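INFO  loader      accepted 1 record
INFO  loader      residues=337
INFO  predictor   begin
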Amino acid sequence: MTVLVTGAAGHVGVTLVRALLAQGRRVRALVRSDTEGLAGLDVELVRGDVRDRRSVAEAVAGAELVIHAAARISLSSVDDPHLQAVNVGGTAAVVDACLDAGGGRLVHISSVHALDLVGAATVDERLPLAEGRDASPYDRSKAAAEREVLRGVAAGLDAVIVSPAAVIGPYDFKPSQVGRLLLELRRGSLPALTGGGQSWVDVRDIVGGVLAAAERGRTGERYLLGGEYRSVVELVEMAAKEIGARRPRVVLPLGLLGALAPTAERLNRLRGREATLTPVSVRALCGSHEVSSEKAVRELGYSRRPLAETVAETMAWLCEHHSGVLGEARRVAPSGA
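INFO  predictor   done
INFO  writer      dumping tokens
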């Protein structure tokens, strides 16, 4: 069986490719240019872009399983045409290519942020999709991407959706925003932490859920892949303990960060820099969102490892693979995807 993975160079993608190879699968990886995380792996590399329908159709051809992991992540509160092009247009291209190819199954990797989380104490599959101006541009784009998948299902496509919580774990080659935060801790360059927290889930457990959904997920269904809720302070304390470091003592309250975020985002945008302190990132850390994986556990056999184990193995991997200096330090703890 040939399995196509879009977004194969991303954090989830490179972990997924490794798991598929370990199962003896033939893997085709759709990538744009960055292949560091795939170096030395026995994969069929296909250069392309999910925004290019022709390259997507060529990549899908002959694949019995397509796992759509490609996505653009953004903390911006300003509409970004690239979000629509990649997250919505790219998903539509994958859906249409799968419909045209006929047969096979599509597993679409979404996010819990595609759901309307406002006021939700517990996050589960019953929540509506995010929409309206109260949702961030990223949230709306992921919700719209899910609607594209459901459009395909209505047209006869065998597709299933998995929605992970905040991703953390090894094989973080780029690294991710959470990876940068932990690397700053290691280098002693993290001056302060934020309040709030997330449901943190190991990237390897996400991959396990994705592969289970490919085998046992019901067509047209969504499965949330939750983790363990911890505050940012607790997460960093766990990481600091692993490497014998001290976490920053200053913890900036979310109320203060919320007041500063609009100005900080505008300044970074004027300087042409990616902002991590934005109204979106602050809102993502608010509330104790417990992500329920009950449906995934019941129907897919989903399981997750203890967060302490994840943090220990993540720190070991980051320290081994990222010994250099970050191009530009992030100064505020970011939200997850």
